[in-house]
UniProtKB/TrEMBL annotation:
Keyword Endoplasmic reticulum tagged: no
Pfam family, one: PPR_2
PPR repeat start and end residues: 106-140, 207-241, 308-342
Keywords of this entry: Repeat
Listed InterPro entries: PPR_At4g14850-like_plant, PPR_rpt, TPR-like_helical_dom_sf
Molecular function in Gene Ontology: RNA binding
GO terms classed as biological process: plant organ development; RNA modification
Name this protein carries in UniProt: Tetratricopeptide repeat (TPR)-like superfamily protein
């Protein structure tokens, strides 16, 4: 396999002590305590089913302890199931410990552990594992490529793209979708954007994920017209959009200030069974706010169940940019009263609202509250409004502090 060493040399080195990549069996809790009563071992097929259907870490640990007790902890299928289940239950450290205890992980174990790191945005660790796989002469498969490409910046993605070509699997739907994503994320470069579209157009079959990736790439790089054109093409081919598609399209409508298009998408959500959750709701709030329809934004916001801080921020910023200072401040009070912790984005909206209304003392109060109570370090965006306040204030120290902060 002459390609393995040259490719590995182009990838980042495996860290000597990464976390959780160096976890081993000692990283797991004492499994003897989880073992429970002695019992006869179940058939591997039954154990595999129990592992897959485990709903809690404690339940999975008991099964794991039973495997060790009965000498089944090196069973390849069962250890693979354990590795995947620990990841799905948000214990990546346990998953890595199981992976590292495997003598010779196969391509499926590598693909699963790389994917587990990728979905948590642990890109460096995912790349380290990919290099380790190549170094151990394990041939990557389509699942490996689709997982590792999620972690790739553009230049590294090009290198891995060349390897997918060598293996003749670049035309696989999942690999091709991941490649479209890599080039779309690098879409601020004309060549990357062109390559992304070329790959997309060359696919014989495009699923909703691929359409969403391409539409989102246009949206993220300020090409809303292309995003909406592709969305219309997608609907014309009878491909039903997903939540991710809808969120990207609503962002495009907001960028254009295209209120009627945004309302059409809203009606499509209602009439076509698209699940209205906090992500879709927040995208609607953001779209209506950017299009100047605060009444619609407020109605959608009120309809969102289990609002997260992103939803609150969208409505607060919407009020702020349109000069509804009192509404923004009242919503902030309500949010905090419900136990939602504000973020730096929250205070950008609040400080902007105060600046627009000339509320100097209120602005300073929120600025100090941001750092003193919530431990949020001011960013350049937070200082913008304060230069205006300071010019109206006789407090030289505050004015000097604001000017110094603005130079950060």
């Amino acid at each position: 396999m002459p390609w393995a060493t040259p490719l590995a040399s182009q990838l980042p080195p495996i860290a000597a002590a990464t976390t959780p990549a160096t976890a081993n069996r000692s990283s797991l809790p004492p499994l003897s305590a989880a073992a429970g009563k002695q019992c006869h071992p179940l058939p591997p097929q039954k154990l595999a089913s129990l592992i897959e259907n485990s709903k809690s870490i404690s339940q999975l640990l008991r099964i794991h302890a039973s495997l060790i007790r009965h000498g089944l902890d090196d069973h390849p299928i069962l250890t693979f199931k354990l590795q995947c289940s620990y990841s799905s239950l948000n214990r990546l450290d346990y998953s890595v410990a199981v992976f590292n205890s495997t003598g010779n992980p196969d391509v499926f174990s590598y693909a699963a552990i790389i994917h587990a790191h990728s979905v948590k945005n642990l890109h460096q660790q995912a790349l380290d594992l990919y290099v380790q796989m190549l170094t151990n002469y394990v041939d990557p498969n389509t699942f490996t490529f689709s997982a590792i490409l999620k972690s790739c910046p553009l230049q590294l993605g090009k290198t891995i793209h060349s390897q997918a070509l060598k293996f003749g699997i670049d035309s696989d739907t999942y690999v091709r979708t991941a490649l479209v994503d890599v080039y779309a994320r690098g879409g601020d470069l004309e060549s990357a954007r062109a390559t992304s579209r070329l790959l997309f157009d060359g696919m014989e079959e495009r699923d909703v994920v691929c359409w969403s990736v391409m539409i989102n790439g246009y949206t993220q790089h300020g090409r809303p017209n292309e995003a909406l054109a592709l969305f219309r093409q997608m609907l014309g081919l009878k491909v039903k959009p997903s939540e991710a598609t809808i969120v990207a399209v609503l962002s495009a409508c907001g960028q254009l200030g295209a209120l009627e298009s945004g309302r059409w998408v809203h009606s499509y959500i209602v009439n076509n069974g698209i699940r209205f959750n906090v992500h879709v709701g927040t995208a609607l709030v953001d779209m209506y706010s950017k299009c100047g329809s605060l009444e619609d934004a407020s109605l959608v916001f009120d309809a969102i169940q289990d609002k997260d801080v992103v939803a609150w921020n969208s409505m607060i910023v919407g009020y702020a940019i349109h000069g509804f200072t009192e509404d923004a401040l009242q919503l902030f009070t309500t949010m905090c009263g419900r136990g939602v912790h504000p973020t730096d984005i929250t205070f950008i909206g609040i400080l902007s609202a105060c600046a627009h209304a000339g509320l100097v003392s209120e602005g300073w109060r929120f600025f100090h509250l941001m750092k003193g109570k919530y431990g949020i370090e001011p960013k350049i965006e937070h200082y913008g409004g304060q230069l205006g306040w300071s010019s109206e204030s006789e407090d030289y120290d505050e004015r000097q502090w604001s000017a110094e902060g603005a130079r950060l």
